[in-house]
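Subject: Predicted fold for Tudor domain-containing protein 5, 177 residues

User T.R. writes:
Posting the sequence so we have a shared reference for the thread.
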Amino acid sequence: MPESSVRPGQLCCVTVSKWWYRAIIHRVVSDQEVEVFYPDYGNLEIVWKSCLRFLKWCYLKLPAQAIPCSLAWVKPVEETWSNEATLLFKKLCVSKLLVGIVDEYVSGILHLFLCDTSTEEDVYFHCVLRDRGCADVCGENIPSQGFKELNPSALYVQPSGKQENAELVETDLHLQQ
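User M.O. replies:
I've generated the C-alpha cells; pasting them so everyone works from the same file.
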C-alpha cells in the first residue's frame, strides 16, 4: 500500500500468519507500524505497514461482523472499570459458549445480559460482578464513561440504517461523476 494511503480511516486488509483480515487503519504508530481495527472481530492490533494491502471492492461493501456491546444493567463501582473487574469478566468469558439475552439496542450499542449455562446453575455475569464487588447493578443501561474512545467500532461501524444511507450517498456521488 503506498505511503500516501496509510492514514486513519483507510480500509484495507492485513496479512497475519498467512491469513487475510479486513482492517481499518486506526492510527499511525511509527514509520513502520500502524494500529488497525478489525471490524469483523472488534479488536485493535499494531501491525507492520508492509503487511497492509488495498481491499478488493467486493469486500468493501460487506457489513462489519463485530457489534459494539455493553453488559446490561451494570456500571463500574468507580468511574471506570477496575483491573479486577476486567480480569474477572475475561475469566468468565474464556473458552465458553455463552447465552446472550438482548435487553435493548440504543445508539448503536447492543446491551445484553451474558449467562454461562454450562453448569448446574446458570451464572449471570452482572450478578457475579456485583457479588464480587466489581460492579453496581443499576437497572438501566449506562454506557461506561469513555466507551466510544475505548471502542473504535463506534468510529467506523454505523448502525444498519445509517450504513444503507451512506451507501446510497456514495452511489449518488459515483453517478454524478
